[in-house]
Write a structure and sequence with these properties.
By secondary structure, the chain is an alpha+beta fold. The protein contains eight helices and twelve strands. The protein folds into two domains: 3-143, Jelly Rolls (Sandwich); 147-225, Winged helix-like DNA-binding domain superfamily/Winged helix DNA-binding domain (Arc Repressor Mutant, subunit A). The longest helix is centred in the middle third of the chain and has 27 residues, at 120-146.
Length: 247
């Protein structure tokens, strides 16, 4: 097997395939590398491949007619994106842009469809991914419609805690650096409002903000304030993403 594609063999989606199936899939895939702030695809691009992020970070977003960015989600190493390609061969619906220097595998749409037909585990994994993404979007939409800016920001901080939380001496530190503008884009607000709200939360002793680094000092209080259950909190520092090849 081509060692360039070791990450296919270790991904959650393809790790149960036989060596022969992996070889066949490898022959169809392409690898692309992108510098920071490069576009991976545009809404007008053909939706002919599913993408697997090997390293780096990618953000998915829409642009309004006024040019305002609405951040849909963040993709981390080991995660698929552009998965709607398996259902629709039309055009992409959103922008995909690298936040860090990134490497991506492009898996042809028909290759994934064939695997879904042959392997129930692949079909189930893709369906589950779509369901989770839809659930996240529905929660985000409900938050936009019915919650205040403060509540939306707290919802987002708790969501980020579940994915990026790292225990520290001061509380739960978010292991991702996001600007106030990026946070605002995720909750349909403005940078100024996010800055003021974070300042209020810091004065209340619920968060600490240090140069784009956010620490939640009282997760219980934040969750209770919006009537949400306390999210699972990490017991140890997270390990490197498991798709990163060991040196």
């Amino acid at each position: 097997m081509d060692d360039r594609f070791w990450y296919l063999k270790n991904s959650d989606l393809f790790n149960r395939l036989s060596p022969e199936q992996i070889l066949q899939l490898e022959s169809r895939c392409r690898i692309r590398s992108f510098e920071r702030r490069n576009l991976v695809y545009l809404p007008a691009d053909a939706s002919n491949a599913v993408l697997l992020l090997v390293s780096g970070r990618v953000k998915l977003y829409h642009l309004t007619s006024e040019g305002k960015e609405t951040l849909l989600g963040l993709i981390e190493p080991g995660e698929l994106f552009g998965e709607l390609a398996v259902l629709d061969s039309g055009r992409r619906d959103e922008f995909a842009e690298t936040m860090l220097k990134s490497t991506v595998i492009l898996v042809p749409r028909d290759a994934v469809q064939k695997l879904m037909e042959e392997q129930a585990v692949v079909s189930l994994a893709v369906t589950r991914l779509m369901g989770l993404r839809r659930q996240r979007m529905e929660r985000r939409l409900k938050s936009l419609l019915f919650c205040s800016n403060r509540e939306r920001l707290i919802h987002l901080l708790l969501e980020l805690t579940s994915k990026y939380g790292q225990r520290s001496a001061d509380g739960i530190q978010l292991g991702i650096r996001l600007s106030h503008q990026e946070l605002a884009s995720m909750i349909g607000s403005t940078r100024e409002t996010v800055t003021v709200t974070l300042g209020d939360l810091q004065l209340e002793g619920s968060v600490i903000v240090r140069r784009r680094q956010i620490i939640l000092t009282n997760v219980d209080r934040l969750a209770t304030s919006i009537g949400e259950p306390v999210p699972l909190q990490p017991d140890i520092q997270p390990q490197e993403p498991r798709l990163l090849k060991p040196t």
